[in-house]
Amino acid sequence: MVVLRLAGKGRTVAVQPKAASGSLYRGREGMWSWVAHRIAGVLIFFFLFAHVLDTALVRVSPEAYNTVIGTYQNPVVAFGEIGLVAAVVFHAYNGIRIILVDTNTWATRNQRRLFWVVVGLWVVTMGPFIWRHLSHVFG
Amino acid sequence: MSVDAPSKKPIAEAVEVPTFQITLRIERYNPEFDTESHYEDYEVTVHGTDRVLDALHTIKWDMDGSLSFRRSCAHGVCGSDAMRINGKNRLACKTLVKDVNPDKPITIEPIKGLPVEKDLIVDMEPFFDSYREIMPFLVTTGHEPTHERIQSQADKDRFDDTTKCILCAACTSSCPVFWNDGQYFGPAAIVNAHRFIFDSRDEAGDQRLQILNDKEGVWRCRTVFNCTEACPRGIEVTKAIAEVKRAIITRRV
């Protein structure tokens, strides 16, 4: 590898800068809540994309709409729906946490505790939902 | 009292500071020969009171002189030796070996998001460019007073926390937003802007808020809190960023 000295700047710069190291940064609750928030957000976006398309079908013909929605009536999609609700519920609760963290000093200082409150609320919301949803699907 | 009386009294025996063997797994990169970095393991004997920096010194001085890293004061003041120790940004001079699980190999990598020049040395220029952009100096108008610029304790307390910054880049290089977008000002620049924005003696607060209202400014902060965890000075970095955000929205300092 060749090493260049940039005129004027006096800094040595490698021609091929080394790619950023791949190893994982060990962040805590704040970082993982951000990662989960991102993933949930992207999942919801993809759902909305499909959702807008299939809902728009009703303008094409109500029969086509019914056919497409009919194909969703199976256990695989039912589990997908659990994933969707899980993503929406987490994104909603954590979104409130982020708003609080940005606007309130107490929340900024207690963001880790608030993250576990979000996780708790998420579990409390998801438990009854999954029970109700699955009994609806398999009942 | 007899002369030998004190020897009869059982006193706590002075215990030797234990020494133990550790493995340091260091990410090495030599721009003259390597196209990619690799890890090298070093077996080092350290004292129970040694810091990671002492282990690095042992390697550099007695084992492998080619190892490159920055350090100046070695006492947590100059901010030269920020590095990733077991996946977290820390100062090597403020991290005791016994505190980072010496039973397993200790990974030492350069801080993320800045171009690596050699081994643990990164190019700090992008970091200092952002720092310079927020005008890290007192701006005043009018006559220079003949005495000190007096400030109440309450006024000082508003920015006291952010005066502690030593510009080690542990915060900025722990920020996922900064890793993905080197244009982002980064926590350290915002912390140092905060130090002047909330200083009652300074008159360029509006200008600094305008600079940070940029799309690469405070709004890129996603409240990940890695910066707050990483700061070796214990600055509440994310809190400072949130205060700047609020000052921009309310247009009130």
CATH homologous superfamily of the largest domain in chain B - what is it?
A: Alpha-helical ferredoxin
> CATH fold name of chain A, please?
3 helical TM bundles of succinate and fumarate reductases
The CATH superfamily of chain A is: Fumarate reductase/succinate dehydrogenase, transmembrane subunit
Question: Can you count the beta strands of chain A?
Answer: 2
* Strand proportion of chain B: 5-15%
Shape of chain A: elongated
Average pLDDT of chain B works out at 93
Second rung of CATH, namely the architecture of the largest domain in chain B: Orthogonal Bundle
Number of helices, where a helix is a run of at least 4 consecutive DSSP H or I residues of chain A: 5
- The H/E string of chain B reads HEEHEEEEEHHHHHHH
The averaged pLDDT of chain A comes out at: 86
Structural class of chain B: alpha+beta
Fraction of residues in β-strands of chain A: under 5%
In words, what does this structure look like?
The complex is a heterodimer of chains A (139) and B (253). Chain A has 139 residues and is mainly α. Helix content of chain A is 75%, strand content 4%. Chain A is built from 5 helices and 2 strands, in the order ββααααα. In chain A, α1 packs across α3 and α3 runs antiparallel to α5. The relative contact order of chain A is 0.10. Chain B is of the alpha+beta class. Chain B has 9 helices and 7 strands. In chain B, α3 packs parallel to α6. The radius of gyration of chain B is 23 Å and the shape is globular. The chains are: A mainly alpha (139), B alpha+beta (253). Chains A and B meet through β2, α1, α3 and α4 of A and α8 and α9 of B.
